[in-house]
Structure formats: C-alpha cells, structure tokens
Amino acid sequence: MAVGLLPLVAAPASAAPPANDEPVGALPMQLGDRVVQDTSEATTNAQDEALNLGCGAPATAASVWYTYTPDQDREVVLDVTESEYSSGILVFAGTPSVDSVVGCGPGIVALRARAGKTYTIMVVADTGTSGGQLVLSLEKAPPEPRVNVSLAPRGVAFRGGAADLHGTYSCRNGELAAVSVTLFQRAGRLKIRGSFSTEIRCHGQRRRWSARVVSPVGTFARGRASARVHIFACGVITCRQDKAERDVQLAWATGPASRQPVTPPTTRPQRPRPLVEHQGHWSGVASSSASA
Prior knowledge:
By secondary structure, the chain is mostly beta strands.
C-alpha cells in the first residue's frame, strides 16, 4: 500500500522584538557613540504611554531603550534627527517614571548630566510609524555662547521720523543670534519710543551693527535721546546676552534721504531661543533641556 507523503510547509517566520524593546534590556551608551538600529520590530505598550504623560508626544510607537552614566558632570546632546522616520526622546533620571522625566522632545534633547547618575533613554516613533532605521548619537554639547556689544555716542535723525544708531559687537559659539535696539526721546510731554531687531552672524569676529529705529508715535529729532542695545546668542542648550545703555546725541541727516518717509514696524522683535527649543517641542513640554 502506497503512502503519500505531504511536503512539509514551513511556518512563516516571526521576527522578534529587539533586545532593548523594554527598559530591562536597555543598551548602555558612552559619550561619542553613534548607534544605528533597526527598530521596525520594536513594540510599544501601556507603560510607554503612561511615561509619556508629562511629555505629550503624539505617539510612542517602536520604543527602544538605552542608558547613559557619565563619569563626570557633563552637558550632552542626544540627537535622532538622522533617523529615517520621525522620532523623539524621553530621558529619565534612574528608573523610568512620570516623576523622573528630566528631558524630552522631538529630534534633539539636551541634558545636564551629573557624574555617576544613570539616565534611562527611551526613543520613540512620535508619529505612530512602525519604526525603521534609527540613528541615535550622544555628543558633548558645544561651548556656551559668548557675546559683547557697544553703542556709539552719536546718531542721525531723519526729518521723516526715523533715527540711525550704530555700534560694534562680537559673538561666538551661537547657533542663533540677534541685536535688538531701543531708542527713547522726549518732546515736551510726548514720549517717543522705537525699536529695531535684526539677526546677526556669530562667528567670533568683531563686527559693526547699524539700526534704523522708527517710532509708531511721534518722530525723532535732533538732540539728546536715550538708547539701549541688547545682543542675544543661543546655542544648543543655553543663551547669553550683553547690553549697553547710554545717552546719544542725534544730529540731523543731510542729503536727499534726510526727508524720506518711514513706516513704523508692525511686529515686536523676538529674542532667539536655544536650538532645542527653536526646533519645537511636543505639547506639554516646558523645555527640551534639563538637569537632574
């Protein structure tokens, strides 16, 4: 009697989640590491969602875990912007809990880390995708910005209403920088005030700044006025500023441009913010840089 043998059919392969899919399997990182990991099989669960309560990430999909224990106090930057999918970072001091969150946000998170303390890092797909190629780097934060600004004692008033001021500045280690100028002058009981702001380069050399200040009320004229200039420069984590204040003497402008009409500014100048804040943050996040 012939016996028919049925061919064996292999069951479909089921890829397992990565070893660091849960906090217990968190992989240690060192300063200078650049980790590339396939997270397409990573999972998420109710614990991830609960830990996200104070951060407000839109999703916590494909979560994977790491740890970092510095040997000395350091300012560091965790960066996942090179990943092939939108991702973000949650950092916990010690055991992950809602109360131990010390920094979180999309793309880049800066941290003032204390020597000997272990930080637990959760990286998530913050748009709910199923992960992909994750690129996570841990680098030393760049130096804090350094700034200095001066204000010249003389300026020029235009019969159309504006005034020109100038001075010098130096700026280094800043990713974003700006100079902001305010000018105040009295005309009897009338208080004439105007402001101006412009972005500047922050490459270390001493440079000249100039500003045309316009008041929405009244017009500036020849004579004494009070001026103040601020310089702001922000790096990845922190911002620094310097200011100069003094009385300036305005002289009438000469030539064809002296009577040129001017238009008051419609918006107030804004100060730069640290890079981690400038890039945005999830709802519910007060800051993307923290210390613990």
